[in-house]
UniProtKB/TrEMBL annotation:
Keyword Transmembrane helix: yes
UniProt protein name: MYADM protein
Membrane topology type: Multi-pass membrane protein
Membrane-spanning segments: 12-34, 46-70, 82-100, 112-131, 143-169, 181-208, 214-236, 257-277
GO (cellular component) term, any one: membrane
UniProt KW keywords: Membrane, Repeat, Transmembrane, Transmembrane helix
Record keyword rRNA processing present: no
InterPro entries membership: Marvel, MYADM-like
Lineage of the species this protein comes from: Eukaryota, Metazoa, Chordata, Craniata, Vertebrata
Similarity comment: family membership: Belongs to the MAL family.
Domain of life: Eukaryota
Domain MARVEL: 10-141, 146-282
Organism of derivation: Rynchops niger (Black skimmer)
Subcellular location: Membrane
Length: 287
């Protein structure tokens, strides 16, 4: 009969404590919002999904580490937990901004206390995940877990920002320049996402190429592609158009502006990614 080992350090270490806080705070957030019954809009549904998803995955991570069952999984556990914690930081941060701005009116009309406490719990949950990312981030020179390094964490950021860009693109794009921008977002998203999946699945070792140099080359290409998108998207999406009045969150002009800023964010992310990747591959610190 197999003996289950209990590793109490999974919940008593600083990382474990941060995860426990994240579980409790995400549970508080979605429970309070569920009690109001006011979450059936697209934004409310997204917020509920974020809290429930982060709660469920973090709870599973805690249980697997507590019972030391994770070594049986055919994945790189450290890469998986690093990627998830970074994703949770981004999702919960977005939710902590979106929920109060879309669900709490000025003045607040109903369930004000529950909504305020849920927002506070969401903000604290973001801090808990941010603490986990800080505690598990790889030290300089340590590349045993790629997704815990700065380039690895930036890969998660780049994929998430691309998803936000896609969520803002609802109208049909006919302009050739804007279609190129869409190609940039799609190609970089697919390649970066595959890098993350292959890293977690331990598949990168089977690629018969100098992988580190190939990643540097890809980052350089993605940076150049995003530079073109940063110039072309605002130039052609706002061409001969003025901001309508009124223009709410569903306004196409506002969505195009959001895509512009998100493109700039990803441009900066790919630039930093290239700098760090180049230093890791070509600049070796003396031992």
């Amino acid at each position: 009969m197999a003996v289950v080992t209990v590793n109490l350090r999974a919940v008593t270490s600083w990382v474990g404590i941060a995860r426990l806080f994240a579980v409790v705070l995400s549970c508080v957030a979605f429970s309070l919002v569920a009690s109001t019954g006011e979450y059936r809009s697209p934004y409310g549904t997204w917020c509920m999904f974020t809290w429930c998803f982060c709660f469920a995955v973090t709870l599973v991570v805690l249980v697997l580490e507590l019972l030391e069952l994770y070594p049986a999984l055919p994945i790189s556990w450290d890469d998986f937990t690093s990627a998830f914690s970074m994703l949770a930081v981004l999702m919960v941060f977005t939710t902590s901004v979106v929920y109060p701005s879309t669900s709490i009116g000025s003045p607040c009309s109903s369930h004000c206390a529950q909504k305020a406490v849920a927002t506070t719990a969401s903000c604290l949950c973001f801090l808990a995940y941010a603490l986990e990312v800080g505690l598990t981030r790889a030290k300089p020179g340590d590349i045993s877990s790629f997704l815990s390094t700065v380039p690895g964490l930036l890969k998660v950021f780049e994929v998430y920002v691309a998803c936000l860009i896609f969520s803002l693109l609802e109208h049909k794009i006919l302009e050739a320049s804007l279609q190129w921008c869409m190609a940039v977002y799609s190609i970089c998203f697919i390649v970066t996402f595959l890098i993350i999946i292959c890293t977690i699945g331990r598949c990168l070792a089977y690629i018969p190429c100098p992988l580190e140099k190939m990643l540097v080359g890809y980052n350089a290409l993605a940076l150049v592609m995003y530079i073109t998108a940063t110039v072309l998207w605002p130039l052609y999406s706002f061409k001969d158009t003025k901001r309508p009045n009124p223009c709410n969150s569903e306004c196409t002009w506002n969505k195009n502006l959001g895509v512009t800023f998100l493109t700039i964010f990803n441009l900066i992310a790919y630039l930093v990614d290239l700098v760090y990747s180049t230093r890791m591959v070509f600049i070796r610190t003396p031992s």
